[in-house]
Design goal:
The chain has about 625 residues and is mainly alpha-helical. It folds into 3 domains: about 400 residues, no CATH class; about 100 residues, Tetratricopeptide repeat domain (Serine Threonine Protein Phosphatase 5, Tetratricopeptide repeat); about 90 residues, Serine Threonine Protein Phosphatase 5, Tetratricopeptide repeat (Alpha Horseshoe). It is built from 28 helices and no strands. α1 packs parallel to α16 and α21 runs antiparallel to α22. The radius of gyration is 31 Å and the shape is elongated.
Length: about 625
């Protein structure tokens, strides 16, 4: 018995030692795995920071003035309330994105650093979430997908351009919602479902194009089971309801603010059904090619002539149809996975393909930031393909392939870093763009806007004139050329430009306002009032037009009539110091001395050096003293 117990103890000791060794090995492997994940995550973060470092102090570009620097909703708590509870206060109803801009304005004002940091951090976060999403889909090289997303040149525009915060802010909740929905599919827990629904709502309140989510989850259900069940349709219904409700709100809100003074006044050269059909095929082909061969990325690409379309411009359709048919025939094997990736790409890209006329189509059909979210589908295909190919290669060939892949990734990283450096200011960006797209009239126009801000009015006039040479039927360059001509004293020439702009677009509120201003300079006061009234009718929140009308009525000694438009001007912008002074003068002339004094004092609070307000205040106080009133 004793000998037997000894042998049993020896066996037990050996088994215990073996189990202990296995435990230590497992723990070591787990620790190695965790360290590897940490290093992979740090590489994604480092790559993102290095790529966008040149743009970190980049200036305001393109329509950043509309969304940020000239956006009155960002100034105070009243604006924050309007962002949420007054749809139509801005051209879009994206309350979470606008609230983020509101907070950034409070922290950074006109310093662009904070805005760029926000975009970069959100982009890196999205890259990590792409990694997580692809991992949940079972891709072995999911990390590589996150790295490819953070370094891809097609992402640069969305991250380096401040106004595209709507892209970088909406993507993290979108990806988190997708991950939560996959968890719901796998575990059946209702908390995962409602988490996905809540995150989707957040994404929708950042950007309306997230509305594709219900179609994406139905595509995922088909990919997982080979069919879409009634339960899948029921599960997608609340997501669809949110999409439709917020879509209707966004369309109805429409945005009175800035709408008449933004891109709606541009002529879009989009033709009929055949032109749009050709454009959709060309756009899909363009985006697909740019993802796989992103050479010479541009903020504005040359615009193809599609009205009428040529026969060759329909060539993408039979090619796309043939590829789809081939993949569909293979849907029981590898084709299903390809259709998931291509479906994600196509569904998210659909709103930007050309069937619907949108203002940016006045100068280009395609833009990189429209590919920011759709390219995740193509990234998934690349990662899945590399994983499959890697499994079938010998060790030596796989090592060579990894070397080639590393070189490709390094080249993409370098190109993105180089391209991000073009977003430092308007002049650098537009000079680069014109090298590759010399006929871009909108580039000349935007460059003129930047030159006006820099005080280089003669140079701005040259750019506006060149813009009109390239596209003479665009009303906005006529309008801005008129404004530049006013600043060099060419009033009659400016008036001709405003009139030309209004011939092209009679509903151009800013041109009516500017024409009103030049008519005042020409002492044509009744006509000036008429033009200001037209501007106000088109844009009821056009504060400057109200102020212009009030000032003109004062010149005509119609003091009582001037009060109401000046009140409206101050309703829109309480810090309009000239309107505040003129309101005080109208009140003084109509015998409201105490109220006039209050207006002059407020004007001086805004601008303590306002000489006319000081004189008006002194005159009002003297009148009050002479009348013996308090």
């Amino acid at each position: 018995m004793a000998r037997r117990s000894s042998r049993q103890n020896q066996v037990a000791h050996r088994e215990g030692s073996s189990t202990s060794s296995q435990t230590h090995a497992t723990a070591g492997a787990s620790l190695f795995f965790q360290y590897r994940k940490l290093l992979q995550g740090l590489l994604i973060v480092a790559a993102g920071l290095w790529i966008f470092w040149p743009a970190l102090h980049g200036d305001w570009l393109m329509d950043d003035d509309l969304y940020v620097t000239n956006n009155p909703l960002l100034r105070d708590l009243t604006g924050l309330g309007k962002i949420w509870f007054a749809p139509g206060s801005f051209i879009e109803y994206y309350p979470i994105e606008e609230s983020a801009l509101w907070m950034l304005w409070q922290l950074w004002s006109t310093d662009t650093l904070g805005y760029h940091l926000a975009n970069i951090v959100l982009h890196i976060l999205s890259a990590l979430l792409v990694w997580r999403l692809l991992g949940k889909l079972g891709l072995r090289l999911a990390w590589l997908g996150g790295l490819l997303f953070v370094i891809h040149p097609m992402a640069v525009e969305s991250v380096a351009w401040i106004s595209e915060l709507k892209n970088t802010l909406s993507l993290p909740p979108f990806l988190l919602a997708m991950c939560a929905y996959i968890d719901y599919e796998n575990r059946g827990k209702r908390k995962d479902y409602f988490l996905a629904l809540g995150l989707f709502l957040v994404a929708m309140l950042c950007k309306i194009s997230m509305a594709a989510f219900p179609a994406i989850i139905l595509l995922y259900a088909w990919w997982k089971r080979g069919r879409i069940r009634w339960s899948d349709l029921k599960a997608s219904a609340p997501f669809l309801a949110i999409s439709m409700a917020l879509g209707v709100v966004t369309i109805l809100a429409g945005g009175s603010f800035g709408q008449a003074n933004h891109l709606h006044a541009l002529a879009v050269p989009l033709g009929g059904f055949l032109s749009r059909l050709a454009l959709v095929g060309l756009s899909i082909s363009f985006y697909f090619a740019q993802f796989f061969w992103p050479m010479t990325p541009l903020p504005l690409y040359p615009q193809w002539s599609i009205n009428p379309p040529s026969l060759m411009q329909f060539l993408p359709w039979p090619m796309l149809g043939g590829v789809f048919y081939w993949i569909w025939k293979k849907r029981e094997s590898w084709g299903r996975h390809v259709l998931l990736g291509l479906g994600f790409f196509s569904i998210n890209l659909a709103p930007f393909l050309g069937f619907i006329s949108v203002s940016y189509m006045a100068f280009t059909w395609v833009m990189d930031h429209f590919l920011y979210i759709p390219m995740i589908g193509l990234i998934g295909l690349v990662v899945a393909g590399l994983g499959q190919v890697g499994n079938q290669l010998s060790a030596s060939i796989r090592t060579c392939g990894m070397g080639v892949l590393a070189i490709v990734m390094a080249l993409l990283t370098w190109e993105s870093h180089w391209y991000a450096g073009k977003f430092v200011d308007q002049e650098t960006l537009w000079a680069y763009t014109l090298q590759h797209n010399p006929d871009a009239w909108i580039v000349r126009y935007d460059w003129g806007v930047a030159l006006v801000k820099a005080g280089r009015i003669p140079d701005a006039i040259v750019q506006y004139e060149e813009s009109l040479r390239l596209s003479p039927l665009q009303p906005r360059p006529h309008n801005n050329l008129g404004s530049a001509l006013v600043q060099v004293g060419r009033i009659s020439d400016a008036m001709e430009q405003y009139q030309e702009a209004l011939k092209l677009d009679p509903d151009f509120a800013e041109a009516h306002y500017n024409l009103s201003y030049t008519l005042i300079q020409s002492h044509q006061f009744p006509e000036a009032i008429e033009e200001a009234e037209k501007a106000i009718k088109l844009d009821p929140n056009y504060g400057d037009a109200y102020a212009n009308m009030g000032a003109t009525l004062l010149i005509l000694n119609r003091f009582s009539d001037a009060i109401e438009p000046l009140q409206q001007a101050l309703r829109v912008n309480p810090r309009n110091v000239n309107a505040r002074y003129n309101f005080g003068s109208a009140l003084l002339q109509t015998g409201h001395i105490s109220e006039a004094i209050a207006q002059y004092e407020q004007a001086l609070t805004i601008n303590p050096n306002y000489t006319d307000a000081k004189k008006g205040l002194a005159r009002a106080r003297a009148m009050r003293a002479a009348n013996g009133t308090k």
